[in-house]
C-alpha cells in the first residue's frame, strides 16, 4: 500500500524543480506570475556614487540589482591613434550577490558579461572615442573605465549590466583640465564640466529555453534549469549587433527569430526607462 503524502510547495520546488515548472509552463505562466514573454519591471537611477565621474543603478523587479561606476582618467593615447580615447568595462559578481558563487576567481557569468559588454559597446560605437581628446592638452585623451558591481543576482546579469553601463556613461561629467608647465594635469574647478554624449544605444535581451519554451528576462532559477540561454543585442535602429549563447541545447531558426522579435518588441520599454533616468539619451 503506497500512501500519497502531500508536500509543501517550496519543498516540491526544491526536490522536483522540473516537474514544478512543468505545471506552470503548461498553463503558459511562470512561478512569479509573469507570462512567458513578460519581463520584470526596470528601475534605473543615476548619480548613485558621488566619487565617480558617472554612475547608475539598475534593478530588475525586486531582485537583480547592479551598480555601474565610471572613472575618467587623463592618459596618453595608444601609439598610432593620437586622438582616440578608450572605453573598458569590467563586471564583478562577488559571492555576496548569489549563493551560487564561492570566494576565489571571478565566476563565469561575470567573465562572460565583461567580454560581451565590451564587444557590444565597441562594435556599435556607443561612445565616439575620437571625441575623447582632452581639450587644451597636447596629445592627451580620456580613458573611461566602467566597473559594474552586481549587488544581487537573480538572473539576467548581462541585460542589467549593459543598461547600467549605458546610464552611467550618459551621466558622466568630464572636468575641464589644465596642463601645467611641469607636465602635470590639474582640474580647472572654475570651468563647467562637459557632458559625455553617447552616439549609439545598444540594448540586450536574454531568453532561457526551458522545457522547449522561451522565457524572457529569466530568473537565476530559470537559467539554472534551462537547456540554453540566448542573449540578443540590438542597436538603436533595431539591427542585431551581437548574439551570445554559452553552450547548451541548440535553438531552432524559428526560436532564434522569436527571440529577435521579442527583443524588438521590448526595446521601446527599455529605451523609455533609460530616457527617463538619463534625459541626454533622448537626443540620440
- Order of helix and strand elements from N to C terminus: HHEEEEHEHEEEEEEHEEH
By DSSP (H or I, 4+ residues per run), the number of helices equals 6
- Strand neighbour order, sheet with most strands: 1-2-3-5-4
Mean pLDDT: 91
How many strands? 13
Strand proportion: 25-35%
In one word, what is the shape? Answer: elongated
What is the C-alpha radius of gyration, as a whole number of Å? 22 Å
Terminal Cα span: 70 Å
Structure class: alpha+beta
- The low-confidence parts are none
The main pleated sheet reads as: 5 strands, mixed
Helix content: 25-40%
Characterize the structure shown.
The chain has 284 residues and is α+β, with helices and mostly antiparallel strands. Helices cover 27% and strands 27% of the residues. The strands form four sheets. The protein has a five-stranded mixed sheet with strand order 1-2-3-5-4. Strand 10 and strand 11 form a beta hairpin. It is elongated, with a radius of gyration of 22 Å. The mean pLDDT is 91.
Which secondary structure elements does this structure contain, and how are they paired or packed?
Elements: H1 9-15, H2 17-25, E1 42-46, E2 54-60, E3 64-75, E4 86-92, H3 108-124, E5 141-152, H4 157-170, E6 173-174, E7 177-179, E8 185-187, E9 194-195, E10 203-210, E11 213-216, H5 220-225, E12 228-234, E13 240-245, H6 253-277
Parallel strand pairs: 4-5
Antiparallel strand pairs: 1-2, 2-3, 3-5, 6-9, 7-8, 10-11, 10-12, 12-13
Helix pairs in contact: 1-2, 3-4
Amino acid at each position: 500500500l503506497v500512501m500519497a503524502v502531500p508536500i509543501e510547495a517550496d519543498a516540491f520546488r526544491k526536490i522536483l524543480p522540473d516537474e514544478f515548472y512543468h505545471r506552470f509552463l503548461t498553463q503558459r505562466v511562470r512561478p512569479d506570475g509573469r507570462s512567458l514573454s513578460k519581463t520584470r519591471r526596470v528601475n534605473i537611477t543615476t548619480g548613485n556614487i558621488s566619487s565617480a565621474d558617472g554612475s547608475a543603478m539598475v534593478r530588475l523587479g525586486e531582485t537583480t540589482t547592479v551598480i555601474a561606476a565610471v572613472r575618467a582618467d587623463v592618459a596618453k593615447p595608444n601609439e598610432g591613434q593620437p586622438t582616440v580615447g578608450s572605453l573598458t568595462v569590467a563586471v564583478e559578481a562577488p559571492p555576496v550577490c548569489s549563493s551560487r558563487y564561492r570566494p576565489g576567481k571571478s565566476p563565469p557569468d561575470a567573465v562572460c558579461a565583461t567580454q560581451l559588454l565590451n564587444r557590444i559597446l565597441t562594435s556599435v560605437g556607443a561612445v565616439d572615442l575620437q571625441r575623447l581628446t582632452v581639450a587644451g592638452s597636447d596629445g592627451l585623451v580620456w580613458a573611461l573605465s566602467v566597473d559594474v558591481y552586481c549587488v544581487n543576482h537573480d538572473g539576467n546579469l548581462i541585460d542589467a549590466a549593459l543598461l547600467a553601463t549605458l546610464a552611467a556613461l550618459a551621466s558622466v561629467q568630464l572636468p575641464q583640465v589644465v596642463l601645467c608647465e611641469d607636465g602635470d594635469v590639474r582640474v580647472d574647478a572654475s570651468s563647467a564640466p562637459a557632458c559625455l554624449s553617447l552616439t549609439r544605444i545598444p540594448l540586450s535581451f536574454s531568453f532561457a529555453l526551458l522545457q522547449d519554451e522561451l522565457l524572457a528576462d529569466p530568473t537565476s532559477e530559470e537559467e539554472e534549469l534551462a537547456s540554453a540561454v540566448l542573449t540578443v543585442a540590438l542597436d538603436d535602429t533595431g539591427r542585431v549587433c551581437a548574439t551570445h549563447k554559452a553552450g547548451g541545447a541548440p535553438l531552432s531558426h524559428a526560436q532564434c527569430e522569436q527571440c529577435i522579435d521579442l527583443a524588438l518588441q521590448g526595446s521601446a520599454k527599455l529605451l523609455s526607462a533609460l530616457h527617463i533616468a538619463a534625459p541626454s539619451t533622448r537626443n540620440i
